[in-house]
Amino acid sequence: MKLYSGPLSLFTAKVRIALDEKALPYQRIDVGWSRADRYLPHHPEVSRLNPKAEVPVLVDGDVVVYDSSQIFEYLDDAYPEPPLYPKDAAERARCRRLEAWADEIFFPNVWDLIEEAFYPAADDRRDPARLSGAHQRIAELHRQLDGELGKRQHLCGDFSVADIAAFVFVSSAATLGAPPAEGLVALTGWLARVGARPAVGKEVAGLTEAAAKAMAG
Asked: Are 7 and 209 within 8 A, CB to CB?
Protein backbone atom coordinates (compact mmCIF):
# COMPACT_ATOMS: atom_id res chain seq x y z
CA MET A 1 0.00 0.00 0.00
CA LYS A 2 1.25 3.49 -0.90
CA LEU A 3 0.08 6.90 0.28
CA TYR A 4 1.05 9.99 -1.69
CA SER A 5 1.21 12.52 1.08
CA GLY A 6 1.85 16.19 1.72
CA PRO A 7 3.93 16.89 4.84
CA LEU A 8 1.49 19.60 5.96
CA SER A 9 -1.61 18.46 4.07
CA LEU A 10 -4.40 18.30 6.64
CA PHE A 11 -6.50 16.04 4.43
CA THR A 12 -3.56 13.66 4.17
CA ALA A 13 -3.18 13.89 7.96
CA LYS A 14 -6.70 12.48 8.26
CA VAL A 15 -5.70 9.44 6.21
CA ARG A 16 -2.41 8.90 8.02
CA ILE A 17 -4.30 8.75 11.33
CA ALA A 18 -6.79 6.23 9.92
CA LEU A 19 -4.00 4.00 8.58
CA ASP A 20 -2.23 4.05 11.94
CA GLU A 21 -5.46 3.41 13.84
CA LYS A 22 -5.94 0.31 11.71
CA ALA A 23 -2.24 -0.63 12.07
CA LEU A 24 -1.91 -0.89 8.29
CA PRO A 25 1.65 -0.79 6.95
CA TYR A 26 2.14 1.54 4.00
CA GLN A 27 4.80 3.32 2.02
CA ARG A 28 4.57 7.06 2.57
CA ILE A 29 5.59 9.07 -0.49
CA ASP A 30 5.89 12.76 0.37
CA VAL A 31 5.38 15.04 -2.60
CA GLY A 32 7.41 18.20 -3.09
CA TRP A 33 6.20 21.22 -1.11
CA SER A 34 7.50 24.58 0.09
CA ARG A 35 6.01 27.72 1.62
CA ALA A 36 7.06 29.71 -1.45
CA ASP A 37 5.92 27.38 -4.24
CA ARG A 38 3.47 25.20 -2.35
CA TYR A 39 2.92 21.98 -4.36
CA LEU A 40 4.31 23.25 -7.64
CA PRO A 41 5.42 21.57 -9.74
CA HIS A 42 2.88 18.80 -9.08
CA HIS A 43 4.22 15.34 -8.43
CA PRO A 44 3.92 13.47 -11.77
CA GLU A 45 2.42 10.32 -10.23
CA VAL A 46 -0.16 12.31 -8.29
CA SER A 47 -1.12 14.14 -11.49
CA ARG A 48 -1.42 10.82 -13.30
CA LEU A 49 -3.45 9.10 -10.61
CA ASN A 50 -5.72 11.98 -9.55
CA PRO A 51 -7.30 14.31 -12.13
CA LYS A 52 -7.25 17.06 -9.49
CA ALA A 53 -3.47 16.56 -9.00
CA GLU A 54 -3.97 16.68 -5.22
CA VAL A 55 -2.95 14.57 -2.25
CA PRO A 56 -3.91 12.32 -0.58
CA VAL A 57 -3.83 9.49 -3.07
CA LEU A 58 -3.97 5.91 -1.78
CA VAL A 59 -2.76 3.04 -3.95
CA ASP A 60 -3.59 -0.44 -2.68
CA GLY A 61 -2.58 -2.98 -5.31
CA ASP A 62 -4.70 -2.17 -8.35
CA VAL A 63 -7.01 0.11 -6.37
CA VAL A 64 -6.48 3.89 -6.52
CA VAL A 65 -8.51 6.12 -4.23
CA TYR A 66 -8.26 9.87 -3.75
CA ASP A 67 -10.23 12.27 -1.57
CA SER A 68 -9.85 11.64 2.15
CA SER A 69 -13.53 10.76 2.71
CA GLN A 70 -13.51 8.16 -0.05
CA ILE A 71 -10.26 6.75 1.31
CA PHE A 72 -11.90 6.43 4.75
CA GLU A 73 -14.77 4.45 3.25
CA TYR A 74 -12.44 2.24 1.22
CA LEU A 75 -10.28 1.45 4.25
CA ASP A 76 -13.28 0.51 6.37
CA ASP A 77 -14.65 -1.73 3.60
CA ALA A 78 -11.34 -3.41 2.80
CA TYR A 79 -9.89 -3.50 6.33
CA PRO A 80 -12.90 -3.43 8.68
CA GLU A 81 -11.06 -3.90 12.00
CA PRO A 82 -11.04 -1.76 13.99
CA PRO A 83 -14.04 0.00 12.45
CA LEU A 84 -13.98 3.75 11.97
CA TYR A 85 -17.70 4.05 11.21
CA PRO A 86 -20.56 3.08 13.53
CA LYS A 87 -22.69 0.05 12.67
CA ASP A 88 -25.98 1.77 13.45
CA ALA A 89 -27.43 3.45 10.33
CA ALA A 90 -28.42 6.65 12.14
CA GLU A 91 -25.00 6.98 13.78
CA ARG A 92 -23.28 6.29 10.44
CA ALA A 93 -25.31 9.11 8.90
CA ARG A 94 -24.36 11.38 11.80
CA CYS A 95 -20.71 10.38 11.36
CA ARG A 96 -20.73 11.23 7.65
CA ARG A 97 -22.51 14.52 8.36
CA LEU A 98 -19.97 15.59 10.94
CA GLU A 99 -16.99 14.60 8.82
CA ALA A 100 -18.47 16.63 5.94
CA TRP A 101 -19.07 19.51 8.38
CA ALA A 102 -15.39 19.41 9.36
CA ASP A 103 -14.21 19.26 5.74
CA GLU A 104 -16.61 21.69 4.13
CA ILE A 105 -17.61 24.15 6.84
CA PHE A 106 -14.80 24.21 9.41
CA PHE A 107 -11.79 23.75 7.13
CA PRO A 108 -12.41 26.78 4.84
CA ASN A 109 -11.90 29.00 7.88
CA VAL A 110 -8.68 27.16 8.76
CA TRP A 111 -7.59 27.80 5.19
CA ASP A 112 -8.12 31.53 5.75
CA LEU A 113 -5.78 31.30 8.76
CA ILE A 114 -3.21 29.37 6.73
CA GLU A 115 -3.30 31.91 3.92
CA GLU A 116 -3.11 34.93 6.20
CA ALA A 117 -0.90 33.65 9.04
CA PHE A 118 1.31 30.88 7.65
CA TYR A 119 2.06 31.35 3.95
CA PRO A 120 4.20 34.34 2.95
CA ALA A 121 2.08 37.42 2.30
CA ALA A 122 1.50 38.38 -1.31
CA ASP A 123 3.25 41.69 -1.96
CA ASP A 124 3.97 41.83 1.80
CA ARG A 125 0.31 42.60 2.48
CA ARG A 126 -2.13 40.80 4.75
CA ASP A 127 -5.92 40.92 4.89
CA PRO A 128 -6.81 41.62 8.52
CA ALA A 129 -10.55 41.49 7.79
CA ARG A 130 -10.20 37.97 6.41
CA LEU A 131 -8.21 36.90 9.46
CA SER A 132 -10.65 38.49 11.91
CA GLY A 133 -13.62 36.93 10.14
CA ALA A 134 -12.03 33.49 10.30
CA HIS A 135 -11.48 33.86 14.04
CA GLN A 136 -15.09 34.88 14.58
CA ARG A 137 -16.50 32.03 12.48
CA ILE A 138 -14.23 29.45 14.11
CA ALA A 139 -15.36 30.59 17.57
CA GLU A 140 -18.97 29.99 16.54
CA LEU A 141 -18.11 26.61 15.02
CA HIS A 142 -16.36 25.65 18.27
CA ARG A 143 -19.62 26.34 20.09
CA GLN A 144 -21.51 24.21 17.58
CA LEU A 145 -19.09 21.33 18.01
CA ASP A 146 -19.28 21.61 21.79
CA GLY A 147 -23.05 21.28 21.45
CA GLU A 148 -22.74 18.25 19.15
CA LEU A 149 -20.57 16.55 21.74
CA GLY A 150 -22.73 17.27 24.76
CA LYS A 151 -22.07 14.37 27.10
CA ARG A 152 -20.69 12.12 24.35
CA GLN A 153 -17.15 10.84 24.62
CA HIS A 154 -16.81 10.90 20.82
CA LEU A 155 -18.83 12.47 18.05
CA CYS A 156 -20.73 9.38 16.92
CA GLY A 157 -20.42 6.38 19.23
CA ASP A 158 -16.88 5.09 19.40
CA PHE A 159 -13.88 6.88 17.90
CA SER A 160 -14.60 7.44 14.21
CA VAL A 161 -13.69 9.30 11.04
CA ALA A 162 -15.74 12.23 12.32
CA ASP A 163 -13.42 12.55 15.31
CA ILE A 164 -10.37 12.32 13.04
CA ALA A 165 -11.54 15.06 10.68
CA ALA A 166 -12.80 17.42 13.36
CA PHE A 167 -9.70 16.96 15.51
CA VAL A 168 -7.28 17.63 12.65
CA PHE A 169 -8.94 20.93 11.77
CA VAL A 170 -9.75 22.12 15.30
CA SER A 171 -6.22 21.42 16.51
CA SER A 172 -4.73 23.08 13.43
CA ALA A 173 -6.85 26.19 14.02
CA ALA A 174 -5.58 26.27 17.60
CA THR A 175 -1.99 26.07 16.39
CA LEU A 176 -2.71 29.00 14.07
CA GLY A 177 -4.01 31.16 16.92
CA ALA A 178 -7.70 30.19 17.13
CA PRO A 179 -8.10 27.78 20.09
CA PRO A 180 -11.47 26.93 21.67
CA ALA A 181 -12.68 29.12 24.50
CA GLU A 182 -11.97 27.72 27.97
CA GLY A 183 -15.66 27.48 28.84
CA LEU A 184 -16.34 24.86 26.16
CA VAL A 185 -15.89 21.94 28.52
CA ALA A 186 -17.14 19.18 26.23
CA LEU A 187 -14.92 20.33 23.36
CA THR A 188 -11.75 20.79 25.41
CA GLY A 189 -12.24 17.40 27.07
CA TRP A 190 -12.76 15.74 23.70
CA LEU A 191 -9.62 17.39 22.30
CA ALA A 192 -7.55 16.01 25.17
CA ARG A 193 -9.13 12.56 24.86
CA VAL A 194 -8.62 12.27 21.10
CA GLY A 195 -5.16 13.83 21.25
CA ALA A 196 -4.06 11.14 23.72
CA ARG A 197 -4.58 8.37 21.15
CA PRO A 198 -1.19 7.09 19.89
CA ALA A 199 -2.06 7.45 16.20
CA VAL A 200 -3.30 11.00 16.73
CA GLY A 201 -0.34 12.00 18.90
CA LYS A 202 2.06 10.66 16.28
CA GLU A 203 0.38 12.75 13.58
CA VAL A 204 0.35 15.91 15.69
CA ALA A 205 4.07 15.49 16.37
CA GLY A 206 4.76 14.98 12.67
CA LEU A 207 2.77 18.05 11.64
CA THR A 208 4.45 20.15 14.32
CA GLU A 209 7.92 19.08 13.15
CA ALA A 210 7.07 19.71 9.49
CA ALA A 211 5.66 23.16 10.27
CA ALA A 212 8.76 24.10 12.28
CA LYS A 213 11.02 23.04 9.41
CA ALA A 214 8.92 25.04 6.96
CA MET A 215 9.09 28.19 9.08
CA ALA A 216 12.82 27.78 9.64
CA GLY A 217 13.47 27.27 5.95
From this structure: no
